[in-house]
Amino acid sequence: MRTLPTKSIFSIALFSLFGFVLSVTQFFGISPDYPNYVLFFDLLRYEKFDIFVESRFEPGFSLIALALQSFLESDVAVYSSIVASALLVKGWVLRLWGVRGISFFVLSAYYFVVFFPLHELTQLRAACAIALVMTGAVQIWSGRIGIGLFICGTSLLFHISAAGVIPALFLFFDKRWQVILCGFAVFVITSAFAAAFTGTLGIYFQTVGLYQATGFGNDPNPVSVELLIQWAMVVTSLLFWQHLTDAMRRIILLEIVGLAIFYGAIEYAVIAHRIREFYSVFWVFFLGAGLRNRGTRQLSVGFIAGSIIFYYYNIFVIEAYFK
């Protein structure tokens, strides 16, 4: 593999460092899930390796946190170091995907507004798993299937929801009607087997079992503005299918599958949301390819601008970020 140019290394490091600073200073306030991580870190200092039995957190995340605690005393420093690591991997993957120059900074802005608050600042375990799934996906699509599967398998040690994405990485259809049919089939299968599947997961995974006992949360809004923005991009991409590259068609298929799973399992809100969020991050790949393609550059810029405006207004204005 070729050595990254110095400018690329600097860009990736800056991408990671910016996230670290936002996290370690808690510039926007304390995220809803952060207290749970503090409780976990406190338990980790007391339990050490017994944490793998005592905690519901996945072993990969526990091991990384345990290693960081050996030389970092502050909980926020441990948390923020993991944030920086996840971003470092994602930045490297974007560069591996061919995103460079101004496109890298445009996508960085898109990522920090759209995904960073939800993942790195809130669902840190999912953020780590997503970083690994993205890395594994690029390897698989480059023909290095063994390495890609190993990396994707490692993601399960950080968040089990990654299992809902990994099989779809091998899907690819060149024809528009095949993509639509695949999405419909996934919706039907998910609707038919969601109850049985979650019931089985509850037997083996403590977190899912807890949700079964207490509920999977309120039913999500099936026509939220966030979903409508993604649907608009999916429909537009299908209409302009001939202008998409194979890489972009692959991502549109992934987004359709993610949406199909979401609607098929909508009664199990927590699981449906989490799996769709895993799929949603792949928009970064779609836009990275779209900005390089003259036929889809304007479409990509429009989607980025629209998403940034909506998420900025929704998160920073309406919700005032983390109050």
What does this structure look like?
This protein has helices at 6-24, 34-47, 51-54, 59-69, 75-96, 102-114, 124-141, 145-155, 176-204, 206-214, 225-239, 246-264, 269-280, 283-292, 297-318. With 323 residues, it is mainly alpha-helical. The chain has 2 domains: 1-163, no CATH class; 171-323, no CATH class. The radius of gyration is 19 Å and the shape is globular. The termini are far apart.
The count of helical stretches stands at 15
**What is the helix/strand order?**
HHHHHHHHHHHHHHH
What's the number of extended β-strand segments? 0
What proportion of the residues is helical, as a percent range? over 70%
Low-confidence stretches: none
Shape: globular
Helix/strand-derived category reads: mainly alpha
**Total of domains:** 2
Computed Rg: 19 Å
Hey, roughly how much beta strand do the residues contain? Answer: under 5%
Question: What does this entry show, briefly?
Answer:
The chain is built from 15 helices and no strands. It is an all-alpha fold.
Defining key terms:
single chain; 323 residues; mainly alpha; 71% helix; 0% strand; globular
Topology:
Blueprint: H1 6-24, H2 34-47, H3 51-54, H4 59-69, H5 75-96, H6 102-114, H7 124-141, H8 145-155, H9 176-204, H10 206-214, H11 225-239, H12 246-264, H13 269-280, H14 283-292, H15 297-318
